[in-house]
Amino acid sequence: MSDEKSRTVWADEDYVGAKNQSFLSRLYTGTGAFDIVGKRKMWYVISAAIMLICLLSMIFRGFTPGIDFEGGTQVSLPASASVTTDAASEVFAKTLGQEPESAQTAGSGGSATIQLRTETLSSQDASKLAHAFADAFKPDVTVADVSSSDVSSTWGQEITRKMVIALLVFLVVVFIYIAVRFDREMSAAALVSLLFDVVATAGVYSLVGWEVTPAMVIGLLTVLGFSVYDTVVVFDKVEENTRSVFATSRRTFAEQTNLAVNQTLMRSINTTVISVLPIIALMVVAVWMLGIGTLKDLALIQLVGVVVGTYSSVFLASPMLVSLKERRKDVKRHTAKVLARREKVASA
C-alpha cells in the first residue's frame, strides 16, 4: 500500500477543523494532524543518511581510544593560574619531543589538576618530565607534586568485551520483552530503532573526535534504556488505538498508529526536554565553568543519545511498525476496505 493512500484522510469527522488549528494546539491536543507515519519514506531516507554518515565516520575517521582502552601513562600535576593545559603540554613537548595524546583539567578550585595522557613512559622519562615541570612552574609545582601512573590496555579490553556482552544481552532482553508484551512486529521495529540509536550516537562521538572512555560506554548503555522507555510508551498507545481496528472501517492501521504517535508526541518532547536540561547544566557548569573535563564524555554521549532516542522512537520505530504490519494479509484487506468505503462515500 502506497504512502499516499495510507495518509490520514481529513474527511473523517474526528479530524474536521484540525488543520485550521495552530501548530501548538495541534501539538498539545494530539489530533493526528502531523502526518508522521504517512511520510515514512522521507523519515527512512533521513535515517539512512544519518546512519551512512555515522558509519563512514566510524570506518574512515574511527575513534580516539582513551588511555583506559589503549594503555599508556597518565601524568598529573596541580593546576593554577600559570599551570594550564596549554602550558603543561608545551613543557611536555619540549621535554620528550612529542605532544601528549590528551590534556585536560580535572577537579576545581584548589584541588584542580592537569592530566596529561601519553604512550607508556619509562621511569627515566617520567622522572625527567617531573623535573621539567618543577623547573618550568616553580614555585607552584615541585617534583613531589607531579605523579605518573601506568594503565594497562588489558583493563580496557576487558571493559570492551563486557560492553559488547551487555549490549547484546540488552538487545535480546528488549526483543523478548516487547514481543511478549506487544507482538513480534513491534519487537522488530524497536530493535531497528535501538540499532539506529547505537550507530548514530557512536557516529556522532566519532565525528566529534573525543576520547572513548568507560564513562562513554556507561552513557551509551544508559541512553539506550531511555530510548526503549520512549518507544514502549508510543507502542502502548498504538496498541490501545489499534486493539479493535479491524472491527471498524473508519481508519486504517497506519492512520491509527499515526494518531497514537501524535497523542504521545507532546509527552516525548516534554520527557526529552526534562532529560536534556540537566545534561546541558552538567556541560555548562561542570565542564565549562568548573573545568571538570572528565565529565564531558558522559555529558556528550547522554545529550546525543537522548535526542537520537526520541527521534528514533517517534520517526523510525512507529513508521517501521506500520511497514511491517502492512505486509500482513489482514492489514492489507482492512486498508483496502477502508479506502473502498471512502471512495464510495466520496462518489455518493
TrEMBL record:
It is found in: Cell membrane. Coiled coil: none annotated. Keywords: Cell membrane, Membrane, Protein transport, Translocation, Transmembrane, Transmembrane helix, Transport. The keyword Cell membrane applies. Residues 143-326 form the Protein export membrane protein SecD/SecF C-terminal domain. NCBIfam families: 2A0604s01, transloc_SecF. Forms a complex with SecD. Part of the essential Sec protein translocation apparatus which comprises SecA, SecYEG and auxiliary proteins SecDF. Other proteins may also be involved. This is Protein-export membrane protein SecF.
